[in-house]
Amino acid sequence: MSTPAAPSTPERTPRSKGTSERRVASLFGLKGDSWMRHANPWSVWTRFAVLPLLILAIWSRDWIGWWSLAAVALVVVFLMVNPLLFRESGSTRNWASRSVFGEHIWSDRDTVELPRQFLDSKVPAVSTAIQVAGVALLAYGLIELDLLNVVAGLALAQTAKAWYLDRMVLLYEDMKARRPEYAAWER
C-alpha cells in the first residue's frame, strides 16, 4: 500500500525566500514527505506537552540548581526531533493531522493560491501575538518563580496555539475540496 506523498512545492522565483513558517518548518526538518510523519497525532499532542515540560525543567533550577540545564537541553532536543520522531499515522482523519496539513498549506501560501478569506484573515497574526504575550507572562513567572503568572501564561499561549491550529484545520478542509492532491493526504 502506497502512502500519498505530500505535494511538491511549486517552483519559487529566485527572489522568493519563502514564508517565515516554511523557514521555521525547514529548521525542524519538515520538507516533502516528512510532513506526513508530523501529521501523526502523537507528534502534535506531544508538541503541546513540550511547553509544560520546558516550564518544569526551568522551574527545577530551584530544586536541582545547574542540573536544570540538562533537563532544559533534553526538552529542547525533544522539541527539535519531535516532528520526525513518529511514523506516518495509519489514519489522518482527525483534528491533529488536519491541523498539520493546514500548516503545510499555509507555509506554502506564497506558491499556492489560497481563498481570499484565509489570506485576509488576521487570526494567524492575532494568535501569534497572543502566544507571544502568553510566553512573555510565562517567562516573567519563571524568572520570579510566580506560579500564577506561569500558569496564566501557559494557558494563554496554549489556547492561542490551539486557536491557530483550528484555523489551519479550516484552511485544509477548504483546500482539500479545491485540490485533489490535498484530499489525498487523508486516509
What does the model show?
With 187 residues, the protein is mostly helical. The chain has one domain. It is 69% helix and 0% strand.
Number of helical regions:
10
Question: How would you state the average pLDDT, rounded?
Answer: 87
How does the major sheet shape up? none
Distance between the termini: 12 Å
**Domain module count:** 1
Question: Could you estimate the helical fraction of the residues in percent?
Answer: 55-70%
| Broad structural category | mainly alpha
Element order: H for helix, E for strand:
HHHHHHHHHH
What is the CA-based Rg, rounded? 18 Å
**How many runs of DSSP E, i.e. beta strands?**
0
> How much of the residues is beta strand, in percent?
under 5%
* Overall geometric form: globular
- Poorly predicted spans: 1-15
Can you lay out the helices and strands and say which pair or pack?
Elements: H1 20-27, H2 34-38, H3 41-59, H4 61-64, H5 68-85, H6 95-107, H7 116-119, H8 123-144, H9 147-178, H10 180-183
Helix pairs in contact: 1-6, 3-5, 6-9, 8-9
In short:
This protein has helices at 20-27, 34-38, 41-59, 61-64, 68-85, 95-107, 116-119, 123-144, 147-178, 180-183. The chain is an all-alpha fold.
Pick out its properties.
187 residues; mainly alpha; 69% helix; globular; disordered N terminus
